[in-house]
Amino acid sequence: MMMQRTRTRSMAVLRMAPMLALALALTALQAQAAPESPGMSPLADQDLRLARIGYRIAVQNADRCPFPDRLTGLLLHDRAAYDERDRTLIAARFGLGNGFGVRDVIEGSAADRAGIRRGDEIVALNGSEMASFAVGLIGRTASYDRIDAFETLLSRTLQQGPATLELRRDGVPRTLQFPADLGCGGRWVVIPANAFNAWSDGHYVAVTSRLMTDIADDAELAFVVAHEMSHNILRHQEQLHGRSALLAQLGLGSARVKDTEIEADTLAVGLLARAGYDLGAPERFLVQAARKRPFDVPITHPGLKRRIGIVTAEIARLQLHPSTATVAPSNAAFGSEHARTVEPPAVTTPIALETID
Ligand SMILES: [Zn+2]
């Protein structure tokens, strides 16, 4: 059956996801004294793969949001992201001080072009030392809150223009100017889970580690990501606020839910086209997803044949009228200062945030 999550639970999971990823990375680190793989663990590699795909889609479709997000291409970690008992080991392995370590850099991103490299540590932003930044958020147990606070600060700083970053690389300080890329559609996290699923919450796009593993083709994964980013761009989360999954399953209010899925599939094709992905991928993915979840009942989502028909029709339409792919939703405010600073209201009624089919 379809995966359903409460809004509040999903938000908590999304906020914890990078921390969970880091925790698993640490497990892998302890098992292997000197891992030679590019990332820290398979899950960290999944983080980079998802971010790479999401970044490409977001940047190529930046004009679809009136207030695009500032994207860096950085995947960060810090001491606070690990349990206190593990911090000494982590710091020694990664040369991590009291700033923010660069776990990875998306190729071709703003950070990459600025010369930031994996293993660098950000020690100051526009002259402010990071060692004392949000130290109140450093607790005994692992938390992503301090990184979250820094990323918010960095994004706001970059809205004003290029930032000056002071880095430490192999113990040697260096300073560089760092401009952001504009992007639209949200940020991306891998959720360690055995379910084959993905969902969005208005700002983040979450994909389970199982789906990441099962879908080896980046173009097919890109369709999943683009579908979720479309929900964020079109502000479906706000529109469906308070609509319960139970009512939807009873057929009450499900029409609008299905409409949002059709809209997300349609826009996703446009996002993929602009980002240069193989447009045969959506149909391939949908067929695979139907095989993996044969018992799902299309109550809140259109059925497989209808979804394939929707994406096929949109591909044909774009081929006839490619300029229409650039139309931005008129009411999209994702990425605006308002969207960033206002917490979504708590929802106690479970709602079907998203499933991939
Ligand atoms: Zn959807």
Can you put this structure into words, describing what you see?
By secondary structure, the chain is of the alpha+beta class. The chain folds into two domains: 7-183, Pdz3 Domain, CATH 2.30.42.10; 187-341, no CATH class. Helix content is 45%, strand content 14%. Strands 2, 3, 4, 5, 6 and 7 form a six-stranded antiparallel beta sheet that branches. A three-stranded mixed beta sheet has the order 9-11-10. Strands 1-8 form a two-stranded antiparallel sheet. It starts with 6 loop residues before the first helix and ends in a 16-residue tail after the last helix. 45% of the residues are buried. Residues 1-13, 19-39 and 326-357 have low confidence and may be disordered. Bound molecules: zinc ion. Zinc ion binds at residues 227, 231, 261, 264, 354.
- How far is it from the N-terminal to the C-terminal residue, by CA? 11 Å
Strand content: 5-15%
Gross geometry: globular
Named at the architecture level, the CATH assignment of the largest domain is Roll
- The CATH superfamily of the largest domain is identified as PDZ domain
The H/E string reads HHEEHEHEEHEEEEEEHHHHHHHH
Number of helices: 13
Ligands bound to this protein structure: zinc ion
Mean pLDDT: 79
Number of strands: 11
Q: What structural class results from the helix and strand content?
A: alpha+beta
Number of domains: 2
Largest sheet: 6 strands, antiparallel
**What percent of residues adopt helix (DSSP H or I)?**
40-55%
CATH class of the largest domain: Mainly Beta
Give me the CATH fold name of the largest domain. Pdz3 Domain
Oligomerization state: single chain
The residue ranges in which pLDDT falls below 50 over 5 or more consecutive positions are 1-13, 19-39, 326-357
